[in-house]
Amino acid sequence: MSSFFTFFKKSVPAVKINVEMIENFNKCDGEGNYKKFYKENLDFLMSLNTYLEKTSFDKGTLEISLCKNFIPLFDYLSSWNPESSEFEMIDTSSLEKYVPEVLEDLKYAIFSSNWTDFYFKYRSAVDTIIELSRKQGTVDISIQIGNNSCESFKDRDFRRYTYYKLGNISEKPENREFESTCQDEIDSYIDDQNFERKLEQQEAINSKELEEMKKKRELKKKEFEAELEQIQSQMKNRFIALFECIRLKQRFEEKEEKVADWIQNCYKQPIKRFLEYFRDFQNVAREWKYFKRLPSESLQDAYEEISILSECVLSLFDTLEFLFIQLGEQHDIATDALFIKVLQKSIIDFALVLSSILNILDVNAPSHEWYKQLEKLFFMIKLSDIPTTTSLRKICKKAVVSNYEQLEFPKIHLKSYVVIHEQDNVQAEEVCTSESKCVIC
């Protein structure tokens, strides 16, 4: 840690954000796991936070909000679990109150593993923090580039791109957005007469990108629904493989692998694909500033996006209901198989969240508050809540049987329209043949 800190005359601490730290972050980002970066640099972050607390900022500015929530933002970053694609439970009340937009942008950057927009959106504020801290003598922050140091991130980016263009460095900027942004900054030093033209071009590009995203999303929705249909069509074989052991009087432990296979492919996979689809919806919402500033000409597009998302929710809801019914029929044959009831209870919990999501989606005028409520519900859908064979065994040992009696799958009651869910009797007969009606003890 001593390599990070030196001291100037008059005891003004100097902090250097070096190349190793940046490379460490990029590596952790590539792995989708930021815990390592957080752990290895926590001392540095805490010390920097101490210095920033001594810097004065104007009230109500983004800079003061960022500094007051400096550590909580990194805490949130480290709470991301790439294995479950979820955030661990931490207190985000301060972030939601003081830097809600930063929090939303941070979520998107983590979900998408695309930090370009986040970086350039907040670079100016960070550079202001660096400048004011230096002027006030609380801390002198520099950013390393090669063997030299820069006084701001903008200066670092400008010099780095200039070096590349002049051939002084061989490393090309990481992506087109980086190159485009730096080139724009170079152009602004030379000629600023084309601003309006560039703005119009950018708006046209954004419009085209939104249209392409819309087409991709529609395609993904069809793929999502097709995948759910395929899962249902394969239910017969999976139920036979899963429940055949009860007919043979085999024990749970002897068929644990098949139980795990059923949970993974019939239960977990549809929910995982559903969450991936929601991330696409988040990308669109981000283009509209999370419904903070929804242009009137985009209102129809917003309703279409919400409608598509609603259809995906309904598709998953139907799939969960299908699973619930099939499990119930197996339990009727082997009433002492408690683990089936545990799985049913788990499915109900997910279905209740989906029901709440459908009610939120049934909206007349989407707003930022509406989106926050929607996102909060989606964050309640956690893959880690799906029972594993290990957790099933533990739950069944300690379970109170009465808590799993008279389980009923929830009904949907929407405000604007009624949705009737019917089980395909022909398909149900196909799936539940006399041979497949067996359960694990």
Automatic annotation (TrEMBL):
The keyword Coiled coil applies. Residues 196-265 form a coiled coil. The keyword Coiled coil applies. The lineage of its organism: Eukaryota, Metazoa, Ecdysozoa, Nematoda, Chromadorea. It holds the Pfam family DUF713. Keywords: Coiled coil. This is Uncharacterized protein. It comes from Caenorhabditis elegans.
